[in-house]
Amino acid sequence: MELTVYLAGEIHSSWRDEVKEKVRSLKLPISFVGPMENHDRSDSIGEEILGKQPNAVLRDETASSFNNLRTSVLMQKSDIVIALFGEKYKQWNTAMDASTALSLGKPLILIRPEQLHHPLKELSSKANVTVETVNQAIKALSYIFDTE
Amino acid sequence: MELTVYLAGEIHSSWRDEVKEKVRSLKLPISFVGPMENHDRSDSIGEEILGKQPNAVLRDETASSFNNLRTSVLMQKSDIVIALFGEKYKQWNTAMDASTALSLGKPLILIRPEQLHHPLKELSSKANVTVETVNQAIKALSYIFDTE
Amino acid sequence: MELTVYLAGEIHSSWRDEVKEKVRSLKLPISFVGPMENHDRSDSIGEEILGKQPNAVLRDETASSFNNLRTSVLMQKSDIVIALFGEKYKQWNTAMDASTALSLGKPLILIRPEQLHHPLKELSSKANVTVETVNQAIKALSYIFDTE
Amino acid sequence: MELTVYLAGEIHSSWRDEVKEKVRSLKLPISFVGPMENHDRSDSIGEEILGKQPNAVLRDETASSFNNLRTSVLMQKSDIVIALFGEKYKQWNTAMDASTALSLGKPLILIRPEQLHHPLKELSSKANVTVETVNQAIKALSYIFDTE
Amino acid sequence: MELTVYLAGEIHSSWRDEVKEKVRSLKLPISFVGPMENHDRSDSIGEEILGKQPNAVLRDETASSFNNLRTSVLMQKSDIVIALFGEKYKQWNTAMDASTALSLGKPLILIRPEQLHHPLKELSSKANVTVETVNQAIKALSYIFDTE
Amino acid sequence: MELTVYLAGEIHSSWRDEVKEKVRSLKLPISFVGPMENHDRSDSIGEEILGKQPNAVLRDETASSFNNLRTSVLMQKSDIVIALFGEKYKQWNTAMDASTALSLGKPLILIRPEQLHHPLKELSSKANVTVETVNQAIKALSYIFDTE
Amino acid sequence: MELTVYLAGEIHSSWRDEVKEKVRSLKLPISFVGPMENHDRSDSIGEEILGKQPNAVLRDETASSFNNLRTSVLMQKSDIVIALFGEKYKQWNTAMDASTALSLGKPLILIRPEQLHHPLKELSSKANVTVETVNQAIKALSYIFDTE
Amino acid sequence: MELTVYLAGEIHSSWRDEVKEKVRSLKLPISFVGPMENHDRSDSIGEEILGKQPNAVLRDETASSFNNLRTSVLMQKSDIVIALFGEKYKQWNTAMDASTALSLGKPLILIRPEQLHHPLKELSSKANVTVETVNQAIKALSYIFDTE
Known about the structure:
Chain A has 148 residues and is an alpha/beta fold. Chain A has one domain: 3-Layer(aba) Sandwich (Rossmann fold). Chain A has helices at residues 15-25, 39-50, 56-76, 92-103, 121-126, 134-145, and strands at 3-9, 30-33, 80-84, 108-111, 129-131. In chain A, strands 2-1-3-4-5 form a five-stranded parallel sheet, with helices on both faces. The relative contact order of chain A is 0.18. The interface between F and G is small, with 3 and 3 residues.
């Protein structure tokens, strides 16, 4: 049995590399998908495809439609979603993706530093599990395959 | 035909009163539901019902389960969800509620100041309509009933 | 038992009035909803609410989001959808609404002049019933209430 | 990860060949399905299987049932739907297929020349992304696989 | 709490009258819907609305589309479906309606004489309850309202 | 706004009366439904309707089909499910009803004495809220209606 | 692309062999599943597994539960359902399976001799296509794979 | 065709080994998944990943969230669920898993000793088949693949 995991959340740190490396070292049969990690490109993809837009809001609007297309396709291919919240940024698209995962019946692992618990309390209460570190999320993935 | 509208979003300003008053003055057949607007109570409802919790995280956890219960019941009774984002706070539960509305097939009206467009671009792209003021949201509600 | 019927389709003729009048004269317990029938307003509703847009495409885009919001709310309140195709105009939103009705499990009555059968053949094949006149659609509605 | 894309829309030009060729040259792991592209055969398939029909409407009706069967099977196998609208023909089955894709939760890429924006505005507003050329649609597909 | 019950099945005997009378005498808050009970009309409704058809098969086809429209609307309004099978006739539409009820999550009460058990065994195994007489079905309805 | 609450769980104590009385004294707009509370009748309802069965297992089987019919109808009418577990009995039907509620998207309030936490931990983790007393469940219901 | 087709319907003739042979000779990438074709075994499977039952009705009941288990598993694995009705037998399980297929969104090909049109008219009206011979059903399957 | 079967139920006996061995000896193309069978680990997995918890209830709560995550992922990968009830323990999570399977449309085979029929009668009535021994469940699986 192979699993596909969607890695939602911030694209400013290298947490996805950490996840992939550890899963590889544990030889778990998991493959990963996720958002465009090149931040500049995820902001400019609308203009890259459709050309210069009249203003900043429309630049954002066109970019977000291609980002949502990508997320929609890849999340539907996934068996589990991991959403990581960091200390910076609004991260409303992460909250949206996490909530979409729950609504699609995709089990959700939420990673957040303890100090973010208060603003994330309602989402944490809906997540299947909430952990604080990438390492703990890996252990949760690993537990799915463990037989004893 | 009567509609029920769930008013998701910040509970620190009086925007819900503004919505209700304008809808009343327009005599639109709409009733409103929403989260507990007393912030302190929404934070302490877990301990109010279950008693003192061992620590702050668990205090939050128990509170959020009652808040989510409330939201779940009331949103299922709603025909439309309006989600308002303000300049302050993380508002991840608002993003979660907005996304849940979309997943349940409830039409979503997003209200946000233009300067928040960038962090809200993916959610805005999924919303049925995005507006900048309460007044515009009222006009959108009113348009549903207009016959010419 | 009361039924709500959504009347999708062209807004350039008075077919909805004909439907409503006949249903009233038959005293059938049916109420009707439908799109904004003032064509100019349905084209300008985006700018009416959000203000002047940079160009014609964006004017259309904003208008369509409010029109879709309206349709989404009202169609979910409906038990049956009647979609009428006329000889003029592209009417792609009518085809879209008719198809959405089918996907939502709302029974669909398609009204089209016989000469439009060829381009509408796939939609007609999916509709619950296809008729040629408003009068025939009324008979179909009436049959639902008849006891003998 | 391999994706299957359903190519809905007009069968009078060679746009599907253009899509397939470009995707092949980009070595994207995508396979394509779509409607019967031989127009005469898609019109006569009913009589080909069931024999001569009493009149033109019934000839159409039987043909459309086999065309819809085909579309239904193939679209369910697809991860994404691309719908292309051209300048000619009613293309109501394309609007129907595009809308069905959205209702099934299949992400939809809409291709239409800018001058068709007005009649397609409601469908465009529902599509995940709207582009003007086949090339732009390919870029959207490619973006799903890009990692930076 | 009021319930609506769809009475599927044969229209050649007066079993529906028996059901309604007994429910009325028990003062249960139940209203009933069901198919057209005038057999001739249910066979000719297609031609009644659309005019003379080319042959008997098409006469049947048009009639069945209006009958299915009726069933679809009324069954969606129902909380429970009762399907009665008698000794005569093919009754394939009854089996279809019973199965549709189950797929829609509508509880199904199957009434059949014991001697029909063998051919109905798979449907009986899926039904919520199987009884042999109208009287037993009434008792099942009554039990839903009983408090002791 | 009125809510309907299904009261699942043991029928050997008078906890339902306690719930109803308190809700009445709080004047909350809630009505209640639930299983047959006369234990003997819920065990014999199969034979009461269908007559003497060949053995004890079949006596149980027929009874359970009528009990499940009742639960299915009433739970679909409900907005919230409260499931109470007591110290005695297997209560597997309560676990089943609670799980069905969750699968239907009905918010679930679980009431169990603290000492039952271990065997109920997986169900508790899925429930919207878990409380220990009827009184706490009433507070949870009341909170849904509170405005401050 | 490979398809799986469930062959519902009578098990007294060799029509399934005919289907499989023709599909093999056309080299279509289709595999087939279906009910137990050994009639005696499908009637006795309940007693084969659970032992002698008290009477004929219970013998049927246990058999049908294993037959429905089989059908449920295999139909969920299928992309298309073909249901064949013959001149003999009640075939209510065939009508049930055909209707279940439609409710699951599985495209349905109905095969029936023209003389059975009247009793099958409602099911025929719901089926994606209705044909009269196995050969015509094969052509419908083949058309799905044809590219011109 | 390969099937995946989730083996829900008690983890104190070696019934899963018995199932797997027999299926292997019959060379059936079935693979198995299920809960963590090391009881101590399934109780301590929360603390293993998240560290020491404040009290026994919270130790259970964290453990159950990881156990439910595991079950949710693996059950969604399954085609059939087998749930075995034994004479000891509360087994409420087994009842919950069995009920979840039914709600997800996964066929359910219930194994229970005859003496447990009374408390399991409602769940048994909903299960696709109920048997008394592992051997009988294997026969049910085998029957799905048998061709005569």
